[in-house]
Amino acid sequence: MSVALRRPAHPRTSVIHRPRASLTALITALLLALLAAGCTGGGGAEPESESISPSGRGAGAKVLAVKIDNVGPARPQTGLDRADVVYVEQVEAGLSRLLAVYSSEVPPVIGPVRSARETDLELLRQFDRPVLAFSGAQSRLLPAIEQAPLHAVPPSVAPRAYFRGAERPAPHNLYLRAERIPYVAPGSQAVEALGLRFGPAPSGGSAEESRTVRFPSARTTFTWSAERERWLIAMDGSPARTSEGERLGAATVIVQEVTVRPSSFGDRSGNNTPFTETVGSGTAQVLRDGRTYEARWSRPAADADTRFTTPDGQRIDLAEGPLWIVYEAR
């Protein structure tokens, strides 16, 4: 799928002629007016990137997290296949939404971008002040986002980093131009920021062909492909694809059993926003290399990493490639 841009029209400019102005002054005024209007190129030129100093919001952050839409009209998503880590969360009405985390590389366009949730603030504490790109949030949640240890970059902060695609209706058509926010990928894997690592599979496990995680109004299925050495992903019964038509896949899938409880927030339709508790401990299943491994997870505090271990306490390493973590209500 190609994303069509709506190019902003350039404002008209005028030059005020002063009786005593020199030719040089007039030329200078004209050039300044043209630059202000963004007309340095052809008639349809896009606006220049925002000028943000290196000390600006998000400079030096290890990861970029983007909140991504995951209902039918939002698919296929753009740039999701380039994420190092993808979280699948439950939101209002039992639907799912994604939080994609980038660090090794960042695609030029990511989306569709949607709004943040309270769950994201606790989850992202593991990444040590990440950049969070999102479309917005309800007004009561905004103070919590502002106080959270992260760099929030919604359209109100970086308006030129976002655009509306012409091929889909709002709100499923907001996209991020990642190069226009103050984040430079360090080239390292985001799993390293989580305290995880790639390595050999643990002993044991059992053969697994397919695993489905169900939310009240959504489901995500992972089916092992030995040929691709990936868990191919399906969403709500349909194969998940990239915007270029390729199948989405994960090298490792972690199904993390958590408490999902009502929060103090809701949407305009009266649906409560669920809060997913990611601090604590519990059971999990780790899927890699066509096998599933029973595991335990533990995160003692919000600023601590989540550890995944075998039942006897040995660390579980990941298969090389994208990691998907699905939060399943216990």
From TrEMBL:
It holds the Pfam family DUF3048_C. Residues 61-182, 212-325 form the DUF3048 domain. InterPro entries: DUF3048_C, DUF3048_N, YerB-like_sf. This is DUF3048 domain-containing protein. It comes from Streptomyces cavourensis.
